[in-house]
Design goal:
Elements lengths: L11 H11 L7 E4 L9 H16 L3 E6 L9 H13 L8 E3 L4 H13 L3 E4 L3 H8 L16 H12 L9 E4 L14 E5 L14 E3 L1 H12 L3 E5 L6 H10 L7 E5 L3 E2 L6 H9 L14 H7 L3 H11 L7 E2 L1 H15 L2 E2 L1 E2 L2 E6 L8 E6 L9 E6 L2 E5 L3 E2 L9 E2 L3 E4 L4 E9 L5 E9 L12 E5 L2 E2 L4 E8 L24 E9 L11 E4 L3 E5 L7 E6 L4 H9 L1
Parallel strand pairs: 1-2, 2-3, 8-9, 10-11, 12-27, 14-22, 18-19, 20-23, 25-29
Antiparallel strand pairs: 4-5, 5-6, 6-7, 13-26, 14-17, 15-16, 17-24, 20-21, 21-22, 25-26, 27-28, 28-29
Helix pairs in contact: 2-11, 7-8, 11-12
The protein binds adenosine-5'-triphosphate and magnesium ion.
């Protein structure tokens, strides 16, 4: 499935799995990726996907895709479909092992009854405020709920009535009966079930008015599916005693083990679903797949490849320490991939016309151009060349010092894969704006430079009679600050106002008209680009610049 074989980096979870297998604890390793369908997947999820599916792949085991769908009011089918597409796109499959936590609603209900019968769960009628009050604090133990010592028979009866819809929202909950004095607040009789009338669940419709909590659902779902290693992020570390309490007190088929690792935090972006939802709903970006979003659909539309994202996840590794990864690392991964694989093309983003005064107006020739300077297997294409060309406005200055390796008045420059030209005349409009450059064409310079004359450098170009008009979107980082919101208090105030620059007058070489959605290229001297997948018109998105311009800008400042 993967393009290039990789040697997985060792990490502590890999070690645990390999030790468990060596000790004969499990026949095979079985993991799961458990997204909640309340948003699109982001680059942080990729870390979890690559870990879970990758472990299973490397150890010949299995990985399930399981939707953790116990919060129906925030979840929907659009998110379910998008998540499936993104996991597949990253290169992973789940065969017939697609599950929903809601598949287990009746099992979960029966397990709740088992806890009740064992005297390990009770129906509590404290309101939310009192419940908080009774729970105590980190310094003080909690107090027992007045409903804690109801008999199993009474609890069973009340729980059945909750299920039958006989009580309003918030009037009753089912709680585990563990220890109100536990130093771990998660063990102070946590809520297992709450009443939710009137919500239509995307999988189970109106069947239930009673919904189980994540902490109850997750370990049981893992056990039912035979998951051996349940990998989650560090914020669940304090929940692990509850996880263990649940699987050890119930007659579940297997005893899965929870292991925590640190989440991915990435500089210059946010990876909280709440914030990503706000960016979309408040219109700061144009949807979940806006190429500036750190979502997998946004990165895909931006031109990222699955291989680059998997490579990134390998490079960052798996540990237990919280950190913030440099955006540059992600950008380097896509540069490495595209540098090796993306065909080269010529595109002029800000065109200015060049007229070759001594080139026959009726002539046209087709100049061979390799698609990749180091990889002849990518072949070549032919660039139409004629009397009128476009070059980029940034590649011409009337006067410049020696360091300027482009076209100047009276100076010579080579056209990429083409001839040498010399600028003889600058035509301006009434306002002094440059309209055209009249240039001299040097025949016989495809192979050699003209005798005794200095060629400043090489610039790109497109035939004005053959080029295709295109729109080019120059994307930059979505935030100006490495840790958005850290200083300002509101991540929104750190949004980069220049994260999108739209160039509507670009011209690209003719073969790009046939580019397919998301097809990726290097536009020589400009960066890596891909065809936008959501526009009818010819639109290219900049994936990343050729080099790390952020590092350069910062070092120039200092
Ligand atoms: P949020 O807390 O922003 O709502 P979440 O982490 O709860 O998001 P889920 O859909 O529940 O989102 O996550 C699915 C899986 O992906 C979980 O196992 C979660 O731990 C993991 N995950 C989510 N975000 C990250 C991240 N930034 N880095 C690594 N793993 C992550
Ligand atoms: Mg979650």
């Amino acid at each position: 499935m993967h393009e290039e074989p990789h040697t997985p980096k060792p990490n502590f979870i890999r070690q645990i799995v390999s030790d468990d297998l060596a000790a004969g604890k499990h026949g095979i390793v079985h993991t799961r990726f458990p997204p909640e369908p309340n948003g699109y997947l982001h680059i942080g999820h990729a870390k979890s996907i690559v870990l879970n599916f990758g472990l299973a792949e490397d150890f010949g085991g299995l990985c399930n895709l399981r939707f953790d769908d116990t919060n129906p009011h925030k979840e929907n089918q659009e998110f379910v479909a998008a998540i499936k597409e993104d996991v597949r796109w990253l290169g992973f499959g789940w065969d017939d092992r697609l599950y929903f936590a809601s598949d287990y609603f009746s099992n979960l209900f029966d397990y709740a009854l088992e806890l009740i019968d064992k005297g390990l769960a009770y129906v509590c009628e404290l309101n939310a405020e009192d419940m908080r009050e009774y729970r105590g604090t980190l310094k003080e133990p909690g107090r027992d709920s007045p409903f804690r010592d109801r008999s199993p028979a009474e609890n069973r009866d009340l729980f059945q009535q909750m299920r039958a819809g006989e009580f309003p929202d918030g009037s009753k909950v089912l709680r585990a009966r563990i220890d109100m004095a536990s130093p771990n607040i998660n063990l102070r009789d946590p809520v297992l079930y709450r009443i939710r009338h009137g919500v239509i669940h995307h999988q189970t419709g109106a069947e239930w008015c009673l919904y189980p909590m994540y902490d109850f659902t997750h370990p049981i779902s893992d056990a039912i599916e035979g998951v051996t290693h349940s990998l989650c992020t560090l914020e669940f570390e304090d929940h692990r005693p509850l996880y263990d309490w649940i699987v050890s007190n119930l007659s579940v088929p297997t005893q899965p083990r929870q292991i925590e690792f640190s989440r991915l935090n990435l500089e210059y972006t946010v990876t909280s679903k709440r914030k990503l939802t706000e960016l979309v709903s408040e219109g700061h970006v144009n949807g979940w797949d806006d190429p500036r979003m750190p979502t997998l659909s946004g990165l895909r539309r931006r031109g990222y490849t699955p291989a680059a994202i998997r490579d990134f996840c390998q490079r960052i590794g798996i540990t237990k320490s919280e950190n913030r990864i440099e955006m540059q690392l992600l950008e380097d991964c896509i540069r490495d991939d595209l540098n090796r694989h993306a065909p080269r093309r010529l595109a002029v983003i800000n065109p200015i016309k060049v007229v070759l005064s001594n080139y026959d107006d009726n002539a046209c020739e087709y100049l061979p151009a390799p698609n990749h300077p180091q990889d002849p297997s990518l072949g070549e294409r032919r660039l139409p060349f004629c009397r009128e060309l476009w070059i980029d406005r940034a590649d011409f200055q009337e006067t410049a010092n020696k360091k300027y390796k482009r076209l100047v008045s009276g100076g010579l420059v080579r056209l990429r894969n083409g001839y040498v030209i010399r600028c003889d005349e600058v035509i301006k409009d009434a306002g002094g704006e440059i309209q055209e450059l009249h240039c001299h064409w040097y025949p016989d310079t495809l192979e050699n430079n003209p005798d005794g004359e200095k060629v400043r450098g090489v610039i790109h170009w497109v035939s004005a009679r053959h080029g295709e008009p295109a729109e080019i979107r120059l994307y930059d980082r979505l935030f100006n600050i490495a840790n958005p919101g850290k200083k300002s208090g509101d991540y929104r105030s750190d949004i980069n106002p220049d994260s999108l620059l739209t160039c509507v007058n670009a011209v690209v070489e003719p073969c790009l008209a046939a580019a397919t959605p998301e097809q990726r290229f290097q536009f020589e001297r400009e960066g890596y680009f891909c065809r936008d997948s959501s526009s009818e018109k010819l639109v290219f998105n900049r994936t990343v610049t050729l080099r790390d311009t952020w590092a350069r800008n910062t070092s120039e400042e200092t």
